[in-house]
């Protein structure tokens, strides 16, 4: 009895399974477009089951019928030995095989032809019913986009007009405040048109960008122009995508560059700290002068950054590009030919720094120029003369010529001021010595110790040349000191009644007035007459 029951159970199960399969075969999966069942799919195909296959066919038909240029007669069938392919122009709709025909009373080519006629008829009807409505909606959407674009452009113009007016108002208010303080405002008036032009340029750029972004939206509304919309968007999206990917891929190199730069930066700061301490005298290095500290720091800094750039070079984007390498070589050659004089001056500036011929504030003579050093840089040296003339001399010229430094030993040994006067042979030289030394000691700025001294430099035809030498520690006042020394020499010799024979006078004094101030002459002094001797033969 139990065996009979099991037999009846399994027989019923097999019957129900067969009946279910028969229901699936007879029902199939419908392909529905615009609420209209066009055909049914009874079997899967390839990797797709029956439901996936019906869904794919439905998507293809919806895409085809939504095209504005849809023509039902363009649906064709191509039969071969294994399958029949239904296509619309170049787009495949579905493939009909022998398994599909097994669910009908038609063979495969007949079934494919039947599907073709059904699709032509029903898709044509659907297209005629929806084409006008869809086109109307698309046009209304396009009009709405255009209106929105116009409103947006109007808003942008109004916003930038407000920004420009606020900018002008704020600028004019600032100009009034500057003018009230006495500051020059001419440059500000010249800058205002530039600001207006910049604001206008930004406005035009934003409007053009908005219009460009609106075009893909307009083209995307109409199915036939969707490829154009995609192409327009790709012109913006693709470069941005490439840039973003390049940045992501460049992050490791960027981190390497950041580490190299950070290490170099802090090494430079360390060198600067040490140089500042040496310059301020916090500690000393034998044979290394404090004034060398900052120039040496500048040289080391340039070398460190140059080394850093060499190390970073392989990590720069495009460094292996032939174009990039060609441009750098061209710039290097151009720099070499165009800056030979500048490089010469730079090297000369470095040499002068370590030669230490003068420093800022020294009174020097460079070639024919005498004055105080007001600036020394890598390229030039600037001198301010006693007439307040700023003279710029290239460092190469300074290095190739000779220089005189009046200040280098003025504070230690003293700078010797010297001038020569000529006195007649009738005046004792001891008296001349005393008078010249007395005149030098009266001069303010001349040192009492070391004591001034006199040298006889020449025995001329009609007079003797005496050179007074006086020490001073104020080389920057040489012109004033010389002037005061000349005054004191004149006063001293006039008070003593001694003529200074400069310029020279003839020894024959008959009839000639003594070359002295009247205040220093006797009250009864009269110029002598000419002595004429008449010899008889």
From TrEMBL:
It comes from Mucilaginibacter conchicola. One of its GO terms (cellular component) is plasma membrane. The lineage of its organism: Bacteria, Pseudomonadati, Bacteroidota, Sphingobacteriia, Sphingobacteriales. InterPro entries: LSM_dom_sf, MS_channel_C, MscS_archaea/bacteria_type, MscS_beta-dom_sf, MscS_channel_2nd, MscS_channel_C_sf. Residues 342-407 form the Mechanosensitive ion channel MscS domain. Residues 418-500 form the Mechanosensitive ion channel MscS C-terminal domain. The keyword Chloroplast does not apply. Residues 1-18 form the signal peptide. The keyword Endoplasmic reticulum does not apply. It is a multi-pass membrane protein. It comes from the Bacteria. One of its GO terms (molecular function) is mechanosensitive monoatomic ion channel activity. This is Mechanosensitive ion channel family protein.
């Amino acid at each position: 009895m139990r065996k009979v029951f099991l037999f009846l159970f399994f027989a019923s199960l097999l019957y129900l399974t067969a009946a279910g399969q028969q229901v699936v075969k007879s029902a199939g999966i419908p392909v529905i477009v615009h609420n209209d069942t066009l055909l049914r799919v009874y079997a899967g195909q390839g990797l797709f089951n029956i439901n996936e296959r019906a869904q794919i066919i439905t998507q293809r038909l919806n895409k085809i019928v939504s095209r504005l240029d849809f023509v039902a007669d363009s649906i064709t069938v191509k039969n071969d030995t294994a399958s029949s392919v239904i296509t619309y122009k170049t787009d495949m709709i579905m493939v009909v095989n022998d398994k599909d025909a097994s669910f009908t009373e038609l063979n495969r080519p007949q079934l494919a032809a039947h599907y073709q006629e059904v699709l032509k008829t029903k898709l044509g009807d659907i297209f005629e019913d929806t084409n006008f409505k869809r086109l109307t909606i698309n046009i209304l959407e396009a009009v709405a986009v255009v209106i929105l674009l116009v409103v947006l452009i109007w808003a942008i113009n109004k916003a930038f007009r407000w920004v420009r007016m606020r900018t002008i108002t704020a600028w004019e208010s600032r100009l009034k405040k500057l003018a009230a303080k006495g500051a020059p405002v001419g440059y500000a008036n010249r800058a205002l048109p530039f600001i207006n032009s910049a604001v206008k340029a930004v406005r035009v750029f934003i409007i053009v960008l908005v219009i460009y972004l609106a075009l893909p939206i307009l083209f995307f509304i109409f199915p036939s122009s969707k490829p154009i919309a995609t192409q327009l968007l790709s012109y913006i999206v693709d470069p941005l995508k490439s840039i973003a990917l390049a940045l992501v891929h460049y992050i490791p190199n960027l981190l390497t560059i950041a580490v190299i730069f950070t290490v170099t930066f802090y090494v430079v700061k360390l060198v600067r700290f040490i140089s500042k301490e040496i310059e301020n005298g916090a500690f000393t290095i034998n044979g290394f002068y404090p004034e060398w500290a900052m120039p040496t720091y500048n040289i080391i800094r340039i070398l460190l950054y140059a080394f850093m750039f060499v190390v970073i070079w392989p990590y720069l984007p495009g460094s292996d590009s032939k174009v990039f390498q060609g441009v750098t070589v061209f710039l290097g050659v151009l720099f070499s030919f165009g800056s030979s004089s500048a490089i010469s001056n730079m090297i000369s500036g470095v040499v002068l720094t370590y030669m230490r011929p003068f420093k800022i504030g020294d009174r020097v003579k460079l070639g024919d120029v005498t004055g105080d050093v007001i600036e020394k840089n890598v390229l030039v040296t600037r001198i301010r003369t006693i007439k307040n003339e700023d003279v710029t001399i290239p460092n190469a010229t300074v290095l190739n010529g000779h220089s005189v430094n009046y200040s280098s030993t003025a504070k230690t040994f003293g700078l010797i001021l010297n001038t020569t006067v000529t006195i007649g042979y009738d005046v004792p030289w001891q008296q001349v010595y005393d008078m010249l030394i007395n005149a030098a000691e009266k001069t303010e700025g001349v040192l009492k110790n070391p004591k001034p001294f006199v040298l006889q430099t020449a025995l001329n035809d009609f007079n003797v040349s005496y050179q007074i030498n006086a020490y001073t520690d104020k080389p920057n006042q040489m012109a004033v000191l010389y002037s005061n020394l000349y005054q004191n020499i004149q006063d001293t010799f006039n008070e003593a009644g001694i003529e200074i024979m400069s310029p020279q006078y003839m020894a024959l004094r008959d009839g000639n007035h003594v070359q002295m101030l009247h205040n220093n002459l006797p009250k009864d002094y009269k110029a002598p007459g000419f002595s004429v001797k008449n010899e008889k033969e």
